[in-house]
Specification:
The complex is a heterodimer of chains A (134) and B (385). Chain A has 134 residues and is mainly beta. Helix content of chain A is 6%, strand content 38%. In chain B, the strands form two sheets. In chain B, strands 3-2-4-7-1-8-11-10-9 form a nine-stranded mixed β-sheet, sandwiched between helices. Classes of the chains: A mainly beta (134), B alpha/beta (385).
Amino acid sequence: MSMRPDPIQRIDTAFFWEACERGEFVAQKCEKCDVLWHPPRPICPTCHSTEKTTQKLSGKGRLLSWVKQVTPGAFGFPEPPVAALIELEEGIRLVSNLEGVETDDIIIGMNVAVDFAETSGGKAVPIFRAAEAS
Amino acid sequence: MVDSLKQAAIVGIGQTEFSKNSGRSEQQLAAEAILAACQDAGIDPADIDGMTTFGLDNSDEIDVMRSLGCRDINYTTRLPQGGAASVTTIVHAKNAVESGMCDTFVIWRAMNERSQYRFGQPAMSISPDAHSSTFLEWCFPFGAQTPAAWEALSCGPYLDKFGVTSEDLGRIAVLMRKHAATNPDAWFYEKPITLEDHQASRWIIEPWLHLLDCCQESDGGVALVVTRMDKARDLKQKPARIIGAEYSMLFNHEIISDFYEGDLISHDIAERVTEKLIASCDIAPKDTNVAMIYDNFTPQILRQLEGFGYCGIGEAKDYVKDGHMELDGKSPLSPNGGLMGEGYIHGMNNITEGVRQVRGTAANQVKDVETVFLASGVAGAIIGE
């Protein structure tokens, strides 16, 4: 039974978390100029359109940074997870977790691929695991 | 640059004791600190006509006015970006008095962030709708829930690229605590640490931050009074002129969860502030006599040293190791002990120390100070005689 906190969902960001519940990993895409944005925002900073769509992401990326919040222990986790900053091959970044890799084996720049983890309220969030080079 | 008589100057500083349990309200701490700053300057609090604080401060303007008997306020503003706002207060104070909008401008920050709430621990109390920073919605479900976690995540690429070791970071903490040890106002007065103490302190954030890489959680209040040089001449203290004060917010950057723009190696914002400072007053931060640089966590010192131009990219760990930031070095760092050693009043106690260094009245006074650099990531100010 996961104790992981549910994602905070807002009117501008719910689409991302709802996609995760369906097992889909998406980013906001501007309908007008096709630029991807993450975290999502209410208006496209490039062309100022408010018409938004989503794009399915490959789920492949590389690890830019990682930490383990030891003290105080991470709320909602029996053991501190590896929090990770990921750069996706589509060029956007997000904070997530790196799972299934011992900390001694973590290498900045390593290839990772998306998976999903359940939260305490039955929602889902994207997490990452080690991957072969694409 | 404005006419020298119209130039802004810090003419009063005030603070409460720095503790872990003040035993009184944040509103009282704010009032005590502002009153002390007014008394230091020799002005009547009734004459305060402008004020600013942090967006996060819990004391409101009306409460401050009522406590101190302020008659008529012309201008107030509140500043975003947490502790990075500390030096932005100087930018606003300078503009308020040099424009003529205000004559007697007060800055305050008061907090019971140890006894009343825990600033360094997970909190869900900030509405994600009201704050554009991404540290709650986009970090919390992944177990990155504290300022230390966000900071370490954003500094990781820099630390990894240049092979910065825990000992390199520890040398900064040791220096801060060395300075605090001889500052009677510091929480860690007479409590220096060794590099071994730093290495033995418990993990806060693997693989980067031990306990002694982190600033404190403190209770206390700090305030400053700013006016123009033409009025400053009639007051009690030697004024600390605000020679330059600049601020920069850059697209797609945020404060502590600053993950989404740039290479995470260079400190783009500090570099921009440095350019603006040199353009406005022709003084570079590295050419000042004292460096008061925001020290929430040790890696932040390294990145700011490079961003503000003290040394080249990747060189900051050696700049510290080579002794340049000792009291007798070329850029003494936070002679009060900084936020790690003296207290963490969200950066404001580093500004009052800068003023004492200009006056020549600091506990750990640097010799022959003409100018002091004040920095908090997104803002920098140069003050001097």
